[in-house]
Amino acid sequence: MTMLDEQLAALEKLGKSELGDRWAKLTGQPPPNVSAALLRLAVGYELQARTLGKLSRKTSKALEAGTSSKATTRGIRPGMRLAREHGGKVHVVTIGDAGEIIWNSRQWNSLSEVARAITGTRWSGPAFFGLRQTAKAA
User: Fold this and answer.
1) What is the residue-wise DSSP string for the chain?
2) For residue 105, what pLDDT is reported?
3) Average pLDDT over all residues of the chain
4) 132 pLDDT tier (thresholds 50, 70, 90)
5) Do 85 and 95 meet the contact criterion of CB atoms below 8 Å apart?
6) Residue 15 has pLDDT above 90, yes or no
7) 16-40: per-residue pLDDT in tens?
8) Which residues touch 40 (CB under 8 Å, ≥6 apart)?
9) pLDDT for res 70
10) Which end of the chain is more exposed for a tag (fewer CB within 10 A), N or C?
């Protein structure tokens, strides 16, 4: 058993006030007003982060973005082909090398314009082509 494993196992025996003291020593900040179970997880994360390294900047940004929005949108990349069936017909949009949006041999300003042309109603292009997905609750 490694030293980290021992430290994590020892957290199970600590009460809320002891966990708060451990949090204050690790972070230099007063403990958050949360349950003992959640504080135990937070202290465990801090111990692991100090031993194994913190999350990458990219991962941290993705997690922060996930908390501020109820849906996520996947980006489009050159060479991508997006297909959607509507009205009994399959519509294929191609993303060109410079990021241009091509549908029916014509260049469009946005996916939303294409979705509007296909449906005749105002649609979010990313939602219409399945790029916008509702975030799942944790």
Assistant:
1) --HHHHHHHHHTT--HHHHHHHHHHHHSSPPPS--HHHHHHHHHHHHHHHHH----HHHHHHHHHHHH-SEEEPPP-TT-EEEEEETTEEEEEEE-TTS-EEETTEEES-HHHHHHHHHSS---HHHHTT-EEEPPP-
2) 94
3) 87
4) confident
5) no
6) yes
7) 999 999 999 999 999 999 999 999 9
8) 11, 12, 14, 19
9) 58
10) C
Q: Residue 67's pLDDT is what?
A: 57
What does residue 3 show for φ and ψ, rounded to 5 degrees? Answer: -60, -40
Distances (CA, A) of 111 to 77, 125, 126: 13, 4, 7
Higher pLDDT, 72 or 76: 76
Q: How far apart are CA 105 and CA 63, in angstroms?
A: 39
> Cα 87 from chain centroid?
33
Which amino acid, 132? R
Q: How far apart are CA 13 and CA 25, in angstroms?
A: 18
Distance in angstroms (rounded) separating the CA atoms of residues 40 and 18: 10
The per-residue pLDDT for 138 is 47
Any idea which residue has 């403990």 for tokens? 31
